[in-house]
Amino acid sequence: MKTVEVILSPQARKVYEFLLRESNHSKIESSILKSLRQKTSLLKINPHYGDPISKKLIPKEYIEKYDITNLFRIELPNYWRMLYTLTEGETKVEIIAFVLDIVNHKIYNKKFNYK
């Protein structure tokens, strides 16, 4: 059985740390953080847990910055989204779920050119 490791990109790490700081003062950020932790646990069990994004809809920003060929979306509370890609680990018995971004609805719509 392959192990699954979840790694946050620098951008996702910044958002995670923001949620961590703000969760002490805000129920909204607290609920997003709690859900993010739950979804990360689910990813470790099933790396294909999220909804796959069509290859033609993958933002060029992610292709250029991370050289990805697949993208998945997980919905979080308050219309936030977690975006991740799957890659092979350094060993053949490992999958890396690389979290590219954790974004609110407005930023998500902008990245995917939704109106």
Q: Overview of this structure, please?
A:
- It is a single chain.
- Helix 1 crosses helix 2.
- A five-stranded mixed beta sheet has the order 1-5-4-3-2.
- Strand 4 and strand 5 (94-103) form a beta hairpin.
- It has one domain: YaeB-like fold.
- The protein is built from four helices and five strands; from the N terminus they run βααβαβββα.
- With 115 residues, the protein is an alpha+beta fold.
CA gyration radius, whole angstroms: 14 Å
Distinct helical segment count: 4
Q: What's the name of the CATH homologous superfamily?
A: RelE-like
Give the end-to-end Cα distance, rounded to a whole number of Å: 42 Å
What is the average per-residue confidence, as pLDDT, rounded to a whole number?
Answer: 90
N to C succession of SSEs? EHHEHEEEH
Class from secondary-structure proportions = alpha+beta
- Per CATH, the architecture is 2-Layer Sandwich
Q: What is the structure about, briefly put?
A:
It is built from four helices and five strands; from the N terminus they run βααβαβββα.
